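Order emerges. One example.
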Amino acid sequence: MADFIIQLKDYRLTTAEILYHLPDYPAFLQSFIWQDYDRAPSFPNLHKFLNFWEREIEGKLHSVKVDAQTLITPGKTRFIEAEWTVS
């Protein structure tokens, strides 16, 4: 129920692919997927996580790709031309 209430407050399911350099092998990139509810376009939760990453984790960030999807949308209605009953 808490997830539903968060979505009503315009939070969106946000996914970020974070590419970072391996600490022992800086020429190699590793991928990390982060997913949480966040508010677009400012993404405060993602920024908080990236700030934590830069402060606490040794792997230097290379790039971040972000996608946010609204999960609660208006219903789609379409009309049909006929209705059949099978008995």
